[in-house]
Amino acid sequence: MNSNSLDWSLPYASHRSAVMGRNVVSTSQPLAAQAGLRMLLAGGNAVDAAIAAAMALTVVEPTGCGLGSDGFAIVWDGKELHGLNASGRSPAAWTPEYFETLGGIPETGWNAVTVPGAVSAWVALSKRLGKLPFAQLAQPAIDYARNGFPVSPTIAHLWALGAAKLGTQPGFAECFIPNGRVPQAGEIFRSEAHARTLELIAETDGEAFYRGVIAERIAAHSLAHGGAMTLADLAAHQADWVGTIHQRFGDSVIHEIPPNGQGIAALMALGMLDAHGIGQHPLDSVETVHASIEAMKLALADLHQYNADIDAMQAVAPQHLLDATYLAGRARLIDPARAGDPGHGAPRPGGTVYLAAADSQGMMVSFIQSNYMGFGSGVVVPGTGISLQNRGHGFNLIPGHANQVAPRKRPSHTIIPAFAMHADGTPQMAFGVMGGPMQSQGHTQMALRVLRYGQNPQAAADAPRWRVTGGKGVAVELGFDPAVIAALRARGHEVTVEEGNGVFAFGGAQLVLKNGNSYIAGSDPRKDGCAVAY
């Protein structure tokens, strides 16, 4: 695909133009995008840019990620595709019985925290694929933390909401409610503790975080507040190079990280849509939207039944869920005239931040990291700036379920990077959509818009989105065509129009599309999305 085959119209509310260049960084926050661009200007590559941007995002967008986040990446190095799973595992003490005494798996506090993996993602990417010294990549983030940055209106709003929910969690107020109130839009926020932790991470290539002084502080705070995480749990963590799983979609091949991530749901939905013959009707027509929603519901039903740590998916493996015959059979369940409420199939025979970066040498990076529900667990380790995710809440307590909680196990995970290749094996697009269970749904919509209908990346990011909510329920953004909403309701969809800030429910998209020897980037106006290039 090149610029000549794209639709350059901007038909939606935001008329932001796509950004083009031979080197590009697209993130959810302008200061983070600039941190990545600084690395490219210093002679670094797209991986260096992505790591610097990711580190900076822990400072300037703490409402979506932190030093206690998890991370995943897909990287085209110019010759081959790499997939990295840096999500953390549960503490060794986590058993179903452990949580039965607690009355379930909580959303907040130490008993929602699995081992944080984002730091290990940065280190693994840098060691294998980066060019610049790891310590250099941390400098923009350290500067933002120590010298301060102006809080944007979007982040200030999310900050206030997070503080109202999590302000009593251990360490939260000390870090994020200084002097008894949250930062206001335009105020300069500083965190010397965050800066010092970043320096320790940079100086030790992450060792201090998992096996040194930072790990000791994390484990001590866990012990003091009823958590199960120990030094041994932190020391046992490793990021894994896992490759990708993929699905043909028209003339493209979409790649996702294998489970425990939810990317397989996007691949399943796209496979069903291909089998259904998507593309015969206009992009924003009720026929296209209805079929997309129905395919997504079928995919999510299977996701919730089968997705888990890949080592626990023994009865139903990814290859069974992506089998062409199985997906064609699921596609036949799509009724063009009626909304369904599907169950899972039987596939066996008999608060997230996303960024993309690309450089003039052909390297492209799709990277995502997240605390999960906004600020995550609400737990912040005192004196460190480390806010911890709540990924443990992604487990369940259903006996025999593949995603049942167990020791040293990865939970089913919402955050996922995506990458599209041409059918001839050349790179096409790095893309992702932030926002919990919205992510696989967003991937499906972005792939459909850009790769099937040729919409330019900025228009795809701007377009109002839909989100399956369960049963026949579907939420749509304000700005969705009223005629399409009415037609969906006539088919039996229970449609609600969500008028709030779209970032909460519909995520934020970033896309970088390869265009010959340069790139075309789109960034989401729902957040503070920013693409920079040269």
Could you describe the 3D structure shown?
By secondary structure, this protein is α+β, with helices and mostly antiparallel strands. The chain contains 20 helices and 21 strands. Strands 1-20-19-15-14-9-8 form a seven-stranded antiparallel β-sheet. Strand 14 and strand 15 form a beta hairpin. The longest helix has 21 residues, at 286-306. It is globular and about 60 Å long.
Give a quick precis of the structure.
The protein is of the alpha+beta class. The protein is built from 20 helices and 21 strands. The longest helix is centred in the middle third of the chain and has 21 residues, at 286-306.
Write down the overall mean pLDDT: 95
Distance between the termini: 21 Å
In percent, how much strand structure appears in the residues?
Answer: 15-25%
By DSSP (H or I, 4+ residues per run), the number of helices equals 20
Number of strands: 21
Which class best fits the helix and strand makeup? alpha+beta
User: Mind telling me the C-alpha Rg?
Assistant: 22 Å
Largest sheet: 7 strands, antiparallel
Percent helix, as a range, is: 25-40%
Neighbour order of strands in the largest sheet: 1-20-19-15-14-9-8
- Ranges where pLDDT stays below 50 over 5 or more residues in a row are none
Shape summary: globular
List keywords for this structure.
534 residues; alpha+beta; seven-stranded antiparallel sheet
